[in-house]
Design brief:
By secondary structure, the chain is an alpha/beta fold. It folds into two domains: 3-150, 3-Layer(aba) Sandwich (Rossmann fold); 170-273, GMP Synthetase, Chain A, domain 3. It contains eight helices and eight strands; from the N terminus they run βαββαβαβααββααβα. A hairpin with a 5-residue loop joins β6 and β7 (208-216). α5 packs across α7 (231-248). The protein starts with a strand and ends in a 6-residue tail after the last helix. The model has no long low-confidence stretch (mean pLDDT 95).
């Protein structure tokens, strides 16, 4: 009998959730950055292996909210935990032992789904007996992790075609890759003030045509993102285009613009418009 179910990758910011998701599905789907809190929306990746289909959700890090965007990110993480059939609670092996998930998540009740504690970044710390530890960098421990998760998944038919790697539309990943490029090229706090919206996505065109808008909160930030003579926005667009082309397997024309959306991180209507808050 086949097994299939949703597994949320949960934990604090920067514990390696996105890197592990990418390693599991064998494709760069989720934003990876040394800067914490880069994941704002859940990213769903699929792995079909033999008689088992794993539906992994890379959720935003569990953090103490400072403003409305953080509140929306935390709410999305808690919804993913609530909807999951198995919870893979990720915590760095370098910070052993892991505190209980309900404490980290600020939950009054223990989640209904079984919790599997997975220690990440095992290549940076000595192994410990009786711990499930993985390294997304080397692949060590991933097969053991999958076997442990499989035992907890319900029996049932696959939900998706075995060849599929993701459930979200390509325009979602295009926006995420543009934002990832912003995290790579912009400094200090500026990437946290950047949001991306896809205005137009013509996948049938050759090359694929994507018109996107980067939103910042202040005019001074707009000038920094554009850069002298448009240098920064050109570099950002080139980096994002390469990421999108790698996933699409097609050439892309990325038409990128920068606009000011004042204080969007603290404005509920703006968060809804950008897809960060429930409508």
């Amino acid at each position: 009998m086949t097994r299939c179910g949703t597994i949320v990758l949960a934990g604090r910011p920067n514990v390696g959730k996105s890197t592990l998701l990418n390693a599991l599905v064998g494709e760069h789907l989720a934003i990876v950055s040394p800067k914490p809190q880069s994941t704002r929306l859940p990213v769903v990746g699929l792995l079909t292996k033999g008689d088992t289909q794993y539906i992994f959700t890379d959720s935003p890090g569990l953090l103490e909210p400072e403003y409305q965007l953080h509140e929306a990110m935390r709410a999305a993480a808690l919804r993913a935990i609530d909807d999951a059939e198995v919870i893979a609670y990720l915590h760095p092996l370098t910070e052993y032992p892991a505190p209980p998930l309900p404490i980290v998540a600020g939950l009054k009740l223990t989640p209904r789904a079984p919790i599997v504690t997975v220690y990440t970044k095992s290549d940076l710390a000595p192994s410990r007996p009786d711990t499930l530890a993985v390294s997304a960098k080397t692949g060590a421990g991933i097969e053991s992790m999958l076997a442990t998760l499989r035992d907890r998944l319900p029996e049932g038919p696959f939900h998706y075609n075995p060849d599929e790697l993701a459930t979200q539309p390509m325009r979602f990943f295009a926006a995420e890759f543009i934002r990832e490029a912003a995290f790579e090229l912009l400094h200090e706090e500026l990437p946290y003030s950047v949001a991306c919206e896809i205005d137009e996505f013509r996948e049938a065109a050759e090359p694929v045509y994507i018109r996107a808008v980067l939103y910042v909160e202040r005019d001074s930030q707009k000038g920094i993102v554009i850069g002298e003579g448009g240098r920064t926005i050109k570099a950002l667009g080139a980096a994002a285009r390469a990421k999108i082309e790698a996933l699409l397997g097609q050439r892309v024309f990325l038409d990128l613009h920068v606009k000011v959306l004042p204080k969007w991180r603290r404005d509920e209507p703006s968060l809804k418009r950008l897809g960060y808050a429930a409508s």
